[in-house]
Amino acid sequence: MTDQIQRFLFDNTNVRGELVTLEQAYAEVLDRHDYPPAVNRLLGEMLAAVALLTDTVKLDGTLSIEVRGGGALSLLMAESNPGGELRAIARMAEEAEGVADEAGFRELIGEGRIMITLDPREGHRYQGVVALDRDSLADCLADYFAQSEQLPTRLWLAADGQRAGGLLLQRMPDESRNQDVDAWERTVHLAATVKEEELLALAPEELLRRLYHEETVRVFDPKALYFGCTCSRERIADALVSLGAEELRDVLAEQGGIETQCHFCHTRYAFSVEDVETLLAGSSEPPPILH
Predict the structure, then answer these.
(1) What angle separates helix 137-144 from helix 37-57, to the nearest 10 degrees?
(2) Burial 219-244, CB ≥16 within 10 A → b, else e
(3) Domain-by-domain residue ranges, the chain?
(4) Is there a contact between 280 and 241 (Cβ–Cβ < 8 Å)?
(5) CATH architecture of the region 4-227
(6) In this predicted structure, what is the pLDDT of residue 288?
(7) What is the pLDDT of residues 91-123, one digit of tens each?
(8) How far apart are the two ends of the chain, measured CA to CA in Å?
(9) 3-state secondary structure (DSSP) of residue 241
(10) Is domain 233-282 given the CATH code 3.90.1280.10 in the classification?
(11) Which residues does residue 219 pair with via DSSP β-bridges, in sequence order?
């Protein structure tokens, strides 16, 4: 199984789609953490979803999906960029005692919200927020597109702890391209017949043939996906400086140095007293006020 995303469209319609398949990138995320099986499955869905959304919005920057809830799982976050890098984490609530292997989305999350953040390399950061009013991640994301983007969008997601997959369909606003008034309803109806095992096991071309053998589907070159963390010593250093000189020096006085770890990839970064003083001396702007 190849980690990739496959774009396609239906000729003479305004309906487009994407298929994503993940195995190695998914495994690398799970290898860095020790989550219950139900959380592992949901993380796989998050990885598939963030890959689909990144390719959908054509963002030159990073896109993240963050789910915050009041259940056993307090945080789910996945991030992607146009280069195909993926990463994800989960955080259990402190009071969570255990998670059933078959626990579903709403059981894990409870009441909460989902945030989609677009952080372009140039321009302003954008964040859309929708309530978790549906019983699956896929349906919550469809609500986000309906409310924030006004684009009819449907998603199907699956993961089993070893592989993850996803299918996205979207109706574009340009009706002048559409010569088939029933295309959206028909393609969604056919997609709804997809089984989780098909999303996980079938190659994109095979799955498209299974679903749309009577449609004219134009398939584009696939794009490779892989695990990649955007953390770096420089980014961690910038985050430390943003805390302010007084707080940093208090930590140094107590600990004699600062050691931190990336939550995504577990890379450790150590800063000595001399390192921190050099960072502070090189900071040309006063630290921001944190509220």
Answers:
(1) 30
(2) eeebbebebbbebeeeebbeebbeeb
(3) 4-227, 233-282
(4) yes
(5) 3-Layer(bab) Sandwich (3.55)
(6) 42
(7) 888 766 677 888 888 888 888 999 999 988 888
(8) 46
(9) helix
(10) yes
(11) 8
